[in-house]
Amino acid sequence: MAAKSRTERRVVLAKTLTILLLTGPYTSQYADIACHIAEKALEQGHRVNLFLYMDGVHIPKKGQVTKNFPNILEHLKKLIGRGLKVKSCVRCASARGYVEGGENIEAEAFPTSQYIEGAAITEIYDFPRWMKESDKVISLGD
Amino acid sequence: MVQSVVILVTKAPYGHENVYGALYVAIASQDVGLQITVILVGDGVYSALKDQSSEKSIGYPSIENLFYTLSQNGEILVEKSSLVERGISKENLIEAIKITDEKDVVKAIEEKGEAILTY
After folding, report:
1. pLDDT at site A13
2. What is the average pLDDT across A63-73?
């Protein structure tokens, strides 16, 4: 019974966190910090959204091989598997070569073969919509 | 849930994508019904200068034009001491932007910063 009540309390307290990330991987620690915050929030039962903006849109790019740094892509895959929602700004992603066609209206996303599964390129409006649904919003990057 | 957002701009325009990116988010946020307050501090105050000609000179969208779009439904504040430190006088600023002191910057953050985005 005690375990059940803990579960019930956890559901009631679940909140939504949205993280805005402005910088790409490796040149700074911001992406790592974003993933670590997301991981801890997910562990506590919260919903977490990660919106990638400006150079942040590089983060879901397939094929990252790191020798001396933690591989941000592997961390991101793990978090997507745990429920992290990931979207990239289409303006930023298009400028950086990730958008490969017009919007898929049904999927509400722009096509790319360069991203891992679970990360989508979408209209910028999805970010303020996420903010409206969030209890907390943080921005990271410089 | 978030209804009111403060966007802190701390960088000068054009040298980085940040200011354009900040105002792009600000305008999109207004479009979905969020209340937006943009605060220019530190080097962010350079964005408040009038007569910007980036479209002709470097082919970048004018930040000044974005401020006019934003000001129709949002508030744009520029922090006074950051202007003084940089020798920028009131006469050189875009009309749509309101000069404010540090106390009122803090007040705006307290009252309107349900979410605070820093660029």
Report:
1. 84
2. 94
Each residue of B48-58: pLDDT tens digit?
Answer: 999 999 999 99
pLDDT at A5 over 90: no
How far is residue A9's CA from residue A22's CA, in Å, rounded to a whole number?
34
Is the CB of residue A27 less than 8 Å away from at least one CB of chain B?
Answer: no
Predicted ipTM of the assembly:
0.93
d(CA B82, CA A66): 41
Q: Is the pLDDT of residue A8 over 80?
A: no
Chain B contacts of A22, Cβ < 8 Å? 18, 21, 119
Give exposure, B43-71, as e/b (b: 16+ Cβ within 10 Å): bbbbbbbeebebeeeeeeebbbebbeebb
Nearest chain A residue to B36, by CA: A128
Min Cα separation B91/chain A (Å): 30
For A107-138, the pLDDT digits (tens) are 999 999 999 999 999 999 999 999 999 999 99
Tokens 């150079």: give the residue: A55
> Could you tell me if A125 lies within 8 Å of chain B, comparing CB atoms?
yes
CB B119 within 8 Å of CB B18: yes
Residues of B at the A interface, defined by Cβ within 8 angstroms: 1-3, 5, 17-18, 21, 24-25, 28-29, 31-34, 114-119
Does A51 contact chain B (CB < 8 Å)?
Answer: no
A112 CA to chain B: closest CA distance, Å?
Answer: 22
Tally of domains in chain A: 1
CA-nearest residue to B4 within chain A is: A132
CATH number, domain B4-118, options 3.40.980.10, 3.40.50.40, 3.40.1260.10, 3.30.70.2860: 3.40.1260.10
